[in-house]
Amino acid sequence: MELAVNVLVSRFKAYASIDGSSDTLSRDEFCRLISSELPNFVKNAGDPAAIDQLMSSLDKNNDEERNFLGFWQLIGQLASKHGGV
């Protein structure tokens, strides 16, 4: 499991650093991450409206960016749905 956590952290940072900050995902970075890394886990991953809705659900402070905690929560939700829990 340590390898899985390391992969999640490194992929988040790789996408987050596209615009210079490796601490948060902008809208564009989030869209790239979802469409490239999670297309089979996120329903309608290619639909901008679906991505906007997903982003809004993770953006608790309305700053238009997603931090790692929000990303981690998304991974937990997707894993839970995938596992049938």
Automatic annotation (TrEMBL):
It comes from the Eukaryota. InterPro entries: EF-hand-dom_pair, S-100_dom, S100_Ca-bd_sub. One of its GO terms (cellular component) is extracellular space. CDD domains: S-100 (cd00213). Coiled coil: none annotated. Residues 1-43 form the S100/CaBP-9k-type calcium binding subdomain domain. GO terms for molecular function: calcium ion binding; calcium-dependent protein binding; transition metal ion binding. This is S100/CaBP-9k-type calcium binding subdomain domain-containing protein.
